[in-house]
């Protein structure tokens, strides 16, 4: 549902603001207040998380069934808008480690340039399978969820529990026959410490934290 929603928002020319329900409530409220979204796309079991939020909510429904929308849901546009290169694709917020989180608008042009560049180097193709472990609340998830669709590869989305458990993550990598994964050094270290051995020609993308030489050599 998350990937379908992400693509639908981009397709109609709107921009999305990712709200990870696992983030602290104060951070989520601050993001909503600053971004001022016109619609909150959520799931039925997450509705209590947004109590007190005055943004209209929409809950996707199974195919063929009507969506559960709040009474103040905005009307459908008369014409389907088309996104231009410089239009915003998404609004992402910094961690706020140096103060108040700051919103950064990323354009459609930037997303396309990024995906095309990453498809070329380090490279990804139709024969690849990538295990996605990053929450949409972090910028690099755009690579995990959209690059595979761009090149015709396969994406295996790990659950939050799988991403945090080295044994479960090993099983996910093995069962999906993954050829690549993008993760932080902490996640790669967790896997290596649990005895994981990458298959031949496995591609590891590492970022988000300091990569120590010892871990680089081990990988």
Quick synopsis:
The protein has helices at 2-11, 25-35, 108-123, 141-151, 160-164, 166-175, 185-193, 213-218, and strands at 40-41, 57-59, 68-69, 88-93, 103-107, 129-132, 154-157, 180-183, 203-206.
Radius of gyration: 19 Å
Strand order of the largest sheet: 7-6-8-9
Identify the overall geometry.
Answer: globular
Q: Report mean pLDDT, rounded to a whole number.
A: 89
Structural class: alpha/beta
**Percent in strands:** 15-25%
Distance between the amino and carboxyl termini: 33 Å
Residue runs with pLDDT of under 50 for 5 or more positions: none
Order of helices and strands: HHEEEEEHEHEHHEHEH
How many H/I helices? 8
User: How helix-rich are the residues, as a percent range?
Assistant: 25-40%
Query: What is the number of beta strands?
Result: 9
Major β-sheet annotation: 4 strands, parallel
Structural commentary:
The structure is a single chain. The longest helix is centred in the middle third of the chain and has 16 residues, at 108-123. 36% of the residues lie in helices and 16% in strands. A hairpin with an 8-residue loop joins strand 2 (57-59) and strand 3 (68-69). Strands 7-6-8-9 form a four-stranded parallel beta sheet. The mean pLDDT is 89. It is α/β, with parallel strands linked by helices. The protein has helices spanning 2-11, 25-35, 108-123, 141-151, 160-164, 166-175, 185-193, 213-218, and strands at residues 40-41, 57-59, 68-69, 88-93, 103-107, 129-132, 154-157, 180-183, 203-206. The relative contact order is 0.11.
């Amino acid at each position: 549902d998350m990937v379908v929603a992400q693509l639908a928002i981009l397709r109609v020319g709107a921009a999305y603001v990712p709200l990870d329900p696992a983030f602290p409530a104060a951070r989520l409220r601050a993001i909503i207040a600053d971004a001022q979204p016109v619609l909150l796309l959520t799931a039925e079991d997450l509705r209590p998380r947004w109590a007190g939020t005055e943004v209209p909510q929409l809950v996707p429904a199974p195919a063929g069934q009507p969506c559960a929308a709040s009474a103040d849901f905005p009307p459908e546009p008369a014409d389907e808008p088309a996104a231009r290169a410089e239009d915003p694709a998404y609004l992402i917020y910094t961690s706020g480690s140096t103060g108040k989180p700051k919103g950064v608008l990323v354009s459609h042009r930037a997303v396309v340039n990024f995906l095309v560049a990453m498809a070329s180097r380090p490279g990804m193709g139709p024969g690849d399978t990538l295990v996605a472990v990053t929450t949409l609340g972090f910028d690099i998830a755009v690579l995990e969820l959209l690059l595979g669709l761009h090149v015709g590869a396969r994406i295996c989305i790990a659950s939050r529990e799988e991403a945090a458990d080295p044994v479960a993550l090993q099983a996910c990598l093995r069962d999906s026959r993954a050829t690549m994964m993008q993760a932080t050094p902490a996640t790669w270290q967790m896997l290596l410490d649990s005895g994981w051995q990458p298959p031949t020609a496995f591609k590891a993308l590492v970022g988000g934290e300091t990569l120590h030489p010892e871990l680089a050599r081990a990988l």
